[in-house]
Amino acid sequence: MSQTTLRNGRLRDGGPVDIEIADAVIREIRPAGSRPVTGPSEDLGGRLVLPPFVNGHAHLDKTFFGGDWQPHVPGGGIRERIEDEKARRAALVHTAEERAFALARTMVEFGTGTLRAHVDIDPDVGLAGLERMLRLRQAFAGHLDVQIVAFPQSGIVSAPGVADLLEEAMRLGADVVGGLDPGSIDGDLDGHLDAVFALAARHDAGIDIHLHEDGPAALAEYRAIADRVAAYGMRGSVALSHAYGLGRLGERDFGEIAGVLAEQRISIMTNGPTGPVPPVLALVRHGVNVFSGTDNIRDSWWPFGSGDPLDLARTVAHRNSLLTDPELDLALGLVTDRAAAALGLPDHGLRAGGPADLVVVGARGAAEAVADPPPARDVLRAGRWVSRRSLSTRSDLPRSSVETSAPSPQHI
Amino acid sequence: MSQTTLRNGRLRDGGPVDIEIADAVIREIRPAGSRPVTGPSEDLGGRLVLPPFVNGHAHLDKTFFGGDWQPHVPGGGIRERIEDEKARRAALVHTAEERAFALARTMVEFGTGTLRAHVDIDPDVGLAGLERMLRLRQAFAGHLDVQIVAFPQSGIVSAPGVADLLEEAMRLGADVVGGLDPGSIDGDLDGHLDAVFALAARHDAGIDIHLHEDGPAALAEYRAIADRVAAYGMRGSVALSHAYGLGRLGERDFGEIAGVLAEQRISIMTNGPTGPVPPVLALVRHGVNVFSGTDNIRDSWWPFGSGDPLDLARTVAHRNSLLTDPELDLALGLVTDRAAAALGLPDHGLRAGGPADLVVVGARGAAEAVADPPPARDVLRAGRWVSRRSLSTRSDLPRSSVETSAPSPQHI
């Protein structure tokens, strides 16, 4: 398909359009039927056309996806869960790459174009997970853009050698420096944050910190992080993931923290979990950028998940009572433009002159697509269809070199 | 397909089986490969085989499904929402039947075998909604069993003529007497409940009451209802829908109410909404039967919903942090055996000698089916496939005589 016109698609914010594509570029987006179409064309039948989804937070290195079903083992705190995870992953180590590939393929089939992947870097796994993710990124080039976060899942200050491993990870190609509950995982709020910010500054990289804390501990962390963003001149380059604590602050504390987050342009990632959630609408009204990611999918932390960004948008909308059309459109933004802003993707969006990357969704608008995400998608990357109509249509997406498993369970 | 064997299916609680079917009856369920298969057969490839789903609570008469997308209009309290709904439904009245038919067809395609449909009966709509639902039940006979609840959405004592309309509805073919927030909608706890219980007693029918209240008002309602169940000898015939208040009771009050519910065999219906939810695990541990229903789907109350019972089970599991395999299996029970118990369906389940009604799901077990519901299903009713593999495969399910609309949006 070096040249074609996709007729009668519907943009998120407007009426029906014809989209002219040539040589992997969108040549023109014009009102449907405003000019006769010459050459090959295809009727989208009024379907919604979106830019590729942005999945702002995932853990492909942890997933059991594509392999046997793994029952969830209930655990205690974060520490116990981390240990359980190590034991279970060790037992599955030969297929970690094929599981990550299987999940990445499914994500592309759902329309994902960019993924922020947190990769564990700890004394046990070392850089093995990172190396697998670098191979995955290379294999999926042209299909899926992968931003890799070097994620110190077992801490930095309290975990021998991790500071050096993180440094090496950034040198090898990780894009973003990760962090985790600075006050509790290392028991050293300043030590953890200083390590994270100094590393990011040395590599001119962004930061993405997992925060699960609540109450005064969370307040201290938000303030300490915001202070460092200002001191390091990193406005717009820092994201905080989960941030459950924002869902339980009193009005005065919430107002203070939201103001600081907005001022330092710190983005908040939410995946719509079971418990308290950062209040999406209230944050947006305070000028804070909020975005979403699928987080854990079928791993030792969480049995749920499909990898579908629209299903994620629905879950977050549901958890936040986003019901009106503008609210449902905001939920769609969490996996499109708002996630692109958080990840620093300036070229996201459909426009003439931009790459011919898009997703066709069987819905008549953004609100409908979020309220009842249709499973079937048509996904165009660089002017080529990489997935068509139905998830059961297999494509030529990359497979792991070690892959031997059956197709993923949706497709049996 | 008067005779066939479905080979290598997987039951919810066991290993692979061959299921022999003849003349719309399951002749035998035996370990896979335990006997040579003669005659026609089909390989299920290890897929999960379930009895038809039971959707324990739906409002087909309210849905906008199958028509144009209808933006959600935020409203105030229950009263305002009821008035908004009446206005919007009046504007759509010509297609109410086709919308209900479209949703019922989709439900069957997802594997639903039995549906409890609450139908509004109020001074404005009178019995028109009931009459439409009776026609739908007749049209879907053999595909979908419909239990009709005569639902006084605008109250009984305070709504002129509704008591008589309810009486007439039961005479015309409604199966269950509905009720709604007795203390607030009518402002007359005893008056509302007396009307409901007396009507049910006259028609030897079950009862299903919507309860949205919280705090002391809810406590008074649970106690008043349980007292009447005992007095009328209606143990096992009463369900309470939503019961949000159970999610906020203190431990002592919760223990008292759960004990009373268990003693009177009153079932609790939850659909996993945004706010407080009845705690599924705690109720089950107290011996209370809990079940689920899709509730509102794309109507003036709620924009979400697909009609898929497995997606419903996942939502309830997510809201209740049901994570382990036994917990996810419990979630599946909310739309299978537990819903069957609540609705009084003694013959639910797969067994030799039973009707050849079943659903094939592309998952390897109950936990996986709930954690990531595969959209594609194969649905067998009375030994005939009524839906195969993919939702986009249209079947010969009944259509409304007035239907003119395009296929439902998933299928455009």
Quick tags:
disordered C terminus, alpha/beta, eight-stranded parallel beta sheet, four-stranded mixed beta sheet, homodimer
Rg from Cα of chain A: 21 Å
Give me the oligomer status.
Answer: homodimer
Outline the low-pLDDT stretches of chain A: 390-396, 401-412
Could you report the average pLDDT of chain A, rounded to the nearest whole number? 90
What's the β-strand tally of chain A? 16
Question: Strand-and-helix sequence of chain A, N→C?
Answer: EEEEEEHHEHEHEHHEHEHEHEHHHEHEE
What would you call the structural class of chain A? alpha/beta
Portion in beta strands of chain A:
15-25%
Summarize the helices and strands and which ones pair or pack.
Two copies of one chain form a homodimer.
Chain A: E1 3-10, E2 16-22, E3 25-31, E4 41-43, E5 48-50, E6 53-58, H1 78-91, H2 96-109, E7 112-120, H3 128-139, E8 145-151, H4 162-172, E9 176-180, H5 182-185, H6 189-203, E10 206-211, H7 215-232, E11 238-242, H8 251-263, E12 267-270, H9 280-285, E13 290-292, H10 309-319, H11 325-333, H12 337-343, E14 358-361, H13 366-371, E15 377-381, E16 384-387
Parallel strand pairs in A: 1-4, 6-7, 7-8, 8-9, 9-10, 10-11, 11-12, 12-13
Antiparallel strand pairs in A: 1-2, 2-3, 5-14, 14-15, 15-16
